[in-house]
Amino acid sequence: MATDNFYPKGEYIFREGESADFAYVLKSGSIEILKTGIDGELILATLDEPNALFGEMALIDGAPRSAGARAVTDANVDEVRQNDFLAYVQKNPAAAMNIMKKLSMELREANKAASQGGGRASGDIDDIGEMVSDEVQKPEDIDDTDAIYDAPASRPILLTVGTVLIGFLVAFVFAFSQSVDTTVSARGKFTTEVPNVGVQATSSATVREVFVKRGQKIKKGQLIVLLDSTVATADLKGNTEKLNAASGRLKRLELEQSLILSGKTIPAGSGLNPLALDILSKKLGQYRSKISSFSSKLRK
Fold first, then answer.
1. β pairing state of 68-71 and 75-81
2. Domains identified in the chain and CATH numbers
3. How high is the pLDDT of residue 135?
4. Whether the Cβ atoms of residue 26 and residue 52 lie closer than 8 Å to each other
């Protein structure tokens, strides 16, 4: 269950803040329990009686060690693993009761030291006994419960609560003392008195002259700017050519359909250009040759 270890004088058995895996039983020698503070190391207790148990609190609550243990003289210490220690406590209620009594005594001593305004030296707390815990409560964590209940609320809290209550009171009085005279409801959107109208050209062009000024009211059909006609003329010419080509293609298709059905030749005054006439003659020849071929196949 336990492992015997030898610690020479001045060697640490465990340090403050370390994780706890073992509890310790002093077999021989002397051990001091110490804590590091602002003013340096503070000796909490000195153990020199055999079978004194220390370092067990960290095994019970699983927290890091709140104090360290160092050998004052050459000491032999037994290590007790956490599982073995907890199993022993569970199987022996008397041992658990002794631990609780010892912790209660240590807590009373700590409360007494805190009420006197500070801790005591190592020689003053030797009478705590064999069971010394590495969990030492800080004086600032021990408060007088009656003083807590009797203490008045702090000034910032009173000011905050007072401000909130005054705000609610003002809002309540305003809601019941004021009334709305007129309610305006309208659809649409708000605009300026003189709306801004964006004017943008439909195509790229050079402005030669502007006939209106900024902010001036204009009427429907009023001339605003004079654009350069070069681009417009080119666009008009291109559109005219496209329109003529589409009209000629439509006329050729209509004449082609009528000649295929009637079997006549192309009239002299058809009004088609030479390219359209050439396409029409080739189309008619192609269609008529196919019709003749189909007719011959049907006769066979």
1. unpaired
2. 2-145 (2.60.120.10), 230-299 (no CATH)
3. 46
4. yes
